[in-house]
Amino acid sequence: MNKNIPSLKIGDLTISPPIIQGGMGVRVSRSNLAAAVANEGCVGVIAGVGLGKFEGLPRSEYEAVNNEALRQEIRKARSMSKGIIGVNLMVALSNYESLAKTAVEENIDLIISGAGLPLSVFLTAGI
Ligand SMILES: Cc1cc2nc3c(=O)[nH]c(=O)nc-3n(C[C@H](O)[C@H](O)[C@H](O)COP(=O)(O)O)c2cc1C
Known about the structure:
Blueprint: E1 8-10, E2 13-15, H1 31-38, E3 43-47, H2 59-80, E4 84-90, H3 96-105, E5 110-114, H4 119-125
Parallel strand pairs: 3-4, 4-5
Antiparallel strand pairs: 1-2
Helix pairs in contact: 1-2, 2-3
Bound molecules: flavin mononucleotide.
């Protein structure tokens, strides 16, 4: 890799080469891809939308199934890589906050929030 490209620093994370893999929802970017990217020194990203076998389930179970699937994907990625793993969560999702909470519980390195501003999270956290 070209050593002239500076590392990207986010907080205490150093990303080198400075690449963040795009989150691709509905089971496209999961643990396998994220771990492979993280193993190269970049940020591997698991997309949170549409994870888990939710088809045919009642709406009331969707959130729990998604959360558990995200938890398992993060754990799987961690088992395959010691690198930087993030999640991509779209604020417009009805279960954004619950997915973000699950990711934090799993000590995710970073959350990339798209499709809106997660103001409620910052307000709740008193930031
Ligand atoms: C199949 C596919 C699924 C995607 N799903 C998401 C998603 O769930 N959330 C999101 O924020 N962006 C999503 N994106 C956008 C990518 O994360 C990325 O921002 C976009 O592809 C632009 O990056 P690029 O120019 O490197 O391709 C998706 C893109 C693709 C191709």
